[in-house]
Structures are given as structure tokens and as C-alpha cells.
Amino acid sequence: MFTYGKASRDGRVQVHFALPAETGPVSVVGDFNAWDPYAHPMVSKGDGTYSVTVSVPRGEAFAFRYLGDGGRWFDEQDAEEYDHRGAILRAPVPARQVKAAAAPAGRAKTAPAPVRRAKSAATAV
């Protein structure tokens, strides 16, 4: 299972991964860590779960899988999307950013109309 935390000011989102303890020692491996099985090992929390938190850029999609003891790969069962690499997570973008991006950029600026000067009495014929 994975859940999203709050977005940080530096443009990243925390993704919390958790699995039942009976799964055994597991690493989360994916695009976000160049598929390095040593980058994000899940840690036993003593509450019956293994978990780890990964920071990813918000608004981007990442494939990932779990790697268990003995080189056993398995996918996230609760993911909404999969491809040939495994489950896909899409790091959310805060609602206020989505609204700002969708808002019109404003009126296009046009050149000001030329100013006509009135003829002075000295130049009038």
C-alpha cells in the first residue's frame, strides 16, 4: 500500500509505502531510485508492518515494484495503473497549483493607439 504526504516547498511529495510484516524484508525499487534495491529498504515498525518513505517530484509518474528476500519481485496490489515495469504512481500536484496553471494568463497586450497632436494656432493655415 502507498499513500501520499504533503507537498513540500521544494516541489516534492512524500510517498509512504507499507506492507504487512509477514511479507518479510522488502525494498521499494523504481524509477525514483534508478531501480536500486539498496536505496529504499523497508523497515519493520514493530506494529506489524514494514514501511519506508520516498520523496519524489510532484506531478510526475513513476513505475515501481517491491523486491523481497531471494530476489522475489511483486507488484503493489492497490495500484490503479500498471505497465510492463510494474505499478505506476502519479505524484499529486496541490490543488492550488492546478488551478493556477489552468487560469488564463490574462489579456494579450496590444500596442497603444498612436497619439494625435492637435495643430497649434501658429502652424494652422
UniProtKB/TrEMBL annotation:
Residues 100-114 have a biased composition (Low complexity). Transmembrane segments: none annotated. It holds the Pfam family CBM_48. Residues 100-125 are annotated as: Disordered. It comes from Nonomuraea soli. InterPro entries: Glyco_hydro_13_N (IPR004193), Ig-like_fold (IPR013783), Ig_E-set (IPR014756). SUPFAM superfamilies: E set domains. Residues 25-75 form the Glycoside hydrolase family 13 N-terminal domain. This is Glycoside hydrolase family 13 N-terminal domain-containing protein. GO terms for molecular function: hydrolase activity, hydrolyzing O-glycosyl compounds. One of its GO terms (biological process) is carbohydrate metabolic process. It comes from the Bacteria.
